[in-house]
Write a structure and sequence with these properties.
Blueprint lengths: L7 E7 L5 H12 L4 E4 L7 E8 L6 H5 L3 E9 L1 E3 L8 E3 L8 H8 L4 E5 L8 E2 L2 E2 H6 L9 E14 L2 E8 L5 H11 L4 E11 L2 E2 L4 E2 L5 H7 L12 E3 L2 H8 L4 E2 L10 E5 L5 E7 L4 E7 L9
Parallel strand pairs: 1-14, 3-12, 15-17
Antiparallel strand pairs: 1-3, 2-3, 4-11, 4-12, 5-6, 7-10, 8-9, 10-11, 12-13, 16-19, 17-18, 18-19
């Protein structure tokens, strides 16, 4: 039987109650000895798109993580939680009778744009070399610093007091639990997240995600997507065999017909539209190699 070239990306529909690590472990058993990684951890409570990278495509994980993410989140007013969601220690919040759809919708507009957000106490943020959730589980209260995150849009898609649903499109590093928590504080009644589903990460969506319970070598091979899709929005330049040789030796090549600012990245492909790597535009209108795959690891598109 011909061995499979496990260099590619995969969108898995993660079920509730399962860690992202468990899904990675399952894929590793299928594609061993190829390396496996994932882009954008989902909490056990959350479901939806988890992007898995295999083989040399693991070097593109940071690009996948930079992609916009879409979520559908469920929330409940009038409660607070030490985890900001339904899985934590829940305490009563305030009265919710003053909250209307109009008021909730008005307040969501305050979260659109580049905003300052404090991560949840139970998060994977590093504090003095340890994860915040590790310290929180020991009963330690950690002063987490607010960080800028970008939220492109928020829509209230359901409102049945005390519950509501938000459809959110945001950038990397955004905590949806924190959005619900902060909305609840603005409304002076508290709010917790009761459910979360990620519907897309960049080019990867639920429409092309494999349900975890059907994930085996056959379904993985059929659903594996080209690494080029990790950087599909990046300008693209076709390179010749001679230029590929130069790039692999660390030499820059002419910019060609690609346009962009100094420091911008460009995807490099060969004549068969196979990904060679990524280069950056220099101030001399040249392309300096940034991430180049060796000859044995050229991966198809």
């Amino acid at each position: 039987m011909r061995s499979t070239n496990w260099n590619g990306l995969l969108a898995v529909d993660k079920p509730a109650g399962m860690t992202s690590r468990r899904i990675v472990d399952h894929v590793e058993r299928i594609v061993r000895p190829a390396k496996v990684g994932h882009a954008g951890t989902l909490d056990p409570l959350a479901t939806g798109v988890l992007v898995i990278a295999m083989g040399s495509a693991t070097r593109l994980i940071s690009y996948v993580q930079q992609g916009r993410k879409k979520y559908v989140g469920q929330f409940r007013l009038g409660q607070r939680s030490d985890t900001d969601d339904i899985e934590g220690r829940i305490t009563p919040g305030g009265d919710t009778t003053h909250v209307t759809l109009e008021l909730l919708t008005e307040f969501t507009t305050r979260f659109v744009g580049v905003v300052s957000q404090v991560p949840p106490q139970y998060s994977a943020i590093h504090v003095d070399g340890q994860r915040a959730y590790t310290l929180a589980r020991r009963g330690e209260t950690v002063e987490l610093q607010a960080r800028p995150v970008e939220i492109h849009s928020i829509q209230v898609s359901r409102f049945e007091l005390p519950d509501f649903e938000l459809q959110i499109e945001c950038g990397s590093g955004t905590y949806v639990r924190s959005i619900g928590r902060d909305l609840g504080e603005l409304l002076v009644c508290g709010a917790i997240m009761t459910d979360l589903r990620r519907t897309s990460v960049g080019a990867f969506s639920l429409e092309n995600a494999v349900p975890f319970d059907t994930l085996d070598a056959g379904s993985l091979q059929r659903a594996m997507r080209p690494p080029l899709q990790a950087i599909e929005s990046m300008p693209r330049r076709q390179v010749s065999a001679a230029e590929i040789s130069d790039l692999r030796q660390g030499r820059s090549i002419v910019l060609g017909e690609v346009s962009g600012n100094v420091g911008s990245e460009v995807a490099l492909v060969d004549a068969d539209v196979r990904l060679i790597g990524v280069a950056k535009i220099t101030d001399r209108e040249r392309l300096q190699p940034h991430l180049i795959f060796p000859a044995a690891m050229i991966i198809g598109s």
